[in-house]
Design brief:
Active site: 47 (proton donor), 135 (proton acceptor)
Function: Hydrolyzes RNA 2',3'-cyclic phosphodiester to an RNA 2'-phosphomonoester.
Shape: globular
Domain Phosphoesterase HXTX: 14-98
Radius of gyration: 17 Å
Motif (HXTX 1): 47-50
Distance between the termini: 43 Å
Number of strands: 8
Protein name: RNA 2',3'-cyclic phosphodiesterase
CATH superfamily: Cyclic phosphodiesterase
Order of helices and strands: EHEHEEHEEEE
Structural class: alpha+beta
CATH architecture: Alpha-Beta Complex
Length: 187
């Protein structure tokens, strides 16, 4: 019988504490308007997945080491992100992700995600070719709705990290963290 994966490894950026607080407030303001019933994700779990590196029964130390080495070479300056829409993504009808997303205010984030993907590929690591849709999952709930504009939530991305998510648990272990550097140029 195949073993069930227990770990998900991914590269991500997280909102700073102020932005995470504003996101949490926005969810509460939207609750009556949109009909959210479920509890929102805890502020410390809010993130934007940049690259999913795989699901594993046991986390492969060599993959963690190679990924850390590859992305440490990316030298880019901090950049601003603007999230200005909420939408429900497809999923199980009773467990749909409700997410914060945006448009033009996420171009620098998309460029950054491409730069990280290039670094991973140059290091010989597999990079899924799925279209990147920048978003922050707010909660999982029933129902759904079309994109809805919201007052923009903005912050400056100053770092990124490699995260080991324990599947089925509410545990994230950081495996690496790297600052974005002023004056950095794409690698």
């Amino acid at each position: 019988m195949p073993q069930v994966p227990a770990h998900r490894l991914f590269l991500a950026v997280k909102p700073d504490a102020d932005a995470a607080g504003r996101i949490a407030q926005r969810v509460e303001l939207l609750r009556p308007e949109v009909g959210f019933k479920a509890k929102p994700l805890r502020m410390e779990r809010l993130h934007i997945t940049l690259h999913h590196l795989g699901d594993f029964v046991e986390l492969p130390d060599t993959l963690v080491a190679h990924a850390c080495e590859a992305v440490a070479s990316v030298a880019l300056p901090p950049f601003e992100v603007i999230f200005d829409q909420v939408v429900s993504f497809h999923g199980r009808r009773d467990h749909r992700p409700f997410v914060l997303t945006g448009g033009a205010g996420l171009h620098a984030l998309i460029d950054f995600q491409h730069a990280l993907g290039g670094a991973l590929e140059r290091a010989g690591l597999r990079v899924p070719q799925a279209r990147f849709v920048p978003h922050i999952t707010l909660l999982y709930d029933r129902g759904g709705f079309a994109p809805k504009p919201v007052e923009p939530i903005t912050w400056t991305v100053r770092e990124f990290m490699l995260i080991d998510s324990w599947l089925g648990k509410t545990r994230y272990d950081e495996k690496g963290r790297w600052p974005l550097r002023e004056g950095g140029a794409s690698s």
